[in-house]
Amino acid sequence: MAAGGRSVTPPALSAEVRVARGTFVVDVRIELRRGEVLALLGPNGAGKSTLLAVIAGLLMPGAGRVHAGGRELTRVQAGRRPAVHVPPSARGIGLLGQDPQLFPHLTALQNVAFGPRAQRHPMRVASADAAAWLERVGLAGLGERRPAELSGGQQRRVAIARALAARPSVLLLDEPFASLDVETAPDIRELLREQLRSSPTTAIVVSHDALDAVVLADRTAVIADGRIVDEGPTARVFAEPRDLFTAAVAGVNLVTGSADGGAVVAAGGIRFTGRGGHRDEGAMIRISGGAPAAAVFRPASVVVSTRQPEGVSSRNVWRARVNGMEHAAGGIRVRTGPLPVVADLMPASVAELGLAEGSEVWLSVKASEVSLYRR
Ligand SMILES: Nc1ncnc2c1ncn2[C@@H]1O[C@H](COP(=O)(O)OP(=O)(O)OP(=O)(O)O)[C@@H](O)[C@H]1O
């Protein structure tokens, strides 16, 4: 009972996990409400799959506990034998791993019908259900093929259909769109969104892609080096990224520093003025005394010049060096340092400025295009 006498709904899924893999340690705690979708983003090797493996019961943590649907599934104290360990097949948790892991001897239809059959639906009903799922994932007519007769992307779609057809109360999806081509991925992403929205399924979607989080998830957690470094409503996480990885996947520049008189002072004494963040548009951050703060702005807002810009008091201006260039949507992304900032330019501008790796440049960004916030 909560204070005030109202009962508190327990989370549909909670996990508190500490697990070492060699010298790497994952130490995280997560909670999801019933029907909630959490995006778990993070760079390669951050510990995302490890966390899913513990929740699914495939990996025993060194210490921790996992609860789902009111049941205790894992409980182990450091240095002790596990007190509780429900085997993966009895957890009611669906895991769609990076490898589709279809049953090789079963047809696509039989693979998808496996979940409904295991739930004792009659063969006829399970097959009709499986055929409908295969149609939804764009594989109508391929139900009789075995996995070896399907492409990697088609196998992935069968695996998605199989995961959804089993209607698990908790679904763990490890990079579900990774091996799908760019034409198929949006359709399958949309299908997954509809299914997750219209069902009480609680889900974790592991991804490197901001689009997956934005389309699918109410909440986003960012994991780096085995720890959750940011967590919150998906819109907030991308509007106010707290670490460089999140900023990069959100497609924005993040400059961290300390607050000073309504501005953010970054390394090298570079001063950023801007708007006070999305919650109080227009207001400067009224923090001083060196509190940690950050400035966020889009790569397309950064103006690159070879001479010092003049008459730009409303702009933040600093000197930089071009560290590299790469393709970006509709143009060229110029990476600069020592303050890590990227600028998106049209190819003609890059040519006109004569930019190359090592070029010394001036960067500027209008204060009205910079958001400042506390960290
Ligand atoms: N079986 C293993 N034995 C030892 N170390 C492992 C094992 N599996 C994973 N690791 C290490 O644990 C760390 C976390 O791996 P994990 O697969 O959880 O990361 P991830 O965030 O899912 O990465 P990716 O995005 O590349 O899939 C990595 O440093 C990895 O090298």
TrEMBL record:
Keywords: ATP-binding, Molybdenum, Nucleotide-binding, Transport. InterPro entries: AAA+_ATPase, ABC_SmlMolc_Importer, ABC_transporter-like_ATP-bd, ABC_transporter-like_CS, Mo/tungstate-bd_C_term_dom, Mop_domain, P-loop_NTPase, Transp-assoc_OB_typ1. Residues 8-250 form the ABC transporter domain. Residues 311-374 form the Mop domain. Gene3D superfamilies: 2.40.50.100, P-loop containing nucleotide triphosphate hydrolases. GO terms for molecular function: ATP binding. SUPFAM superfamilies: MOP-like, P-loop containing nucleoside triphosphate hydrolases. PANTHER family: SPERMIDINE/PUTRESCINE IMPORT ATP-BINDING PROTEIN POTA, SPERMIDINE_PUTRESCINE IMPORT ATP-BINDING PROTEIN POTA. This is Sulfate/molybdate ABC transporter ATP-binding protein. It comes from Luethyella okanaganae.
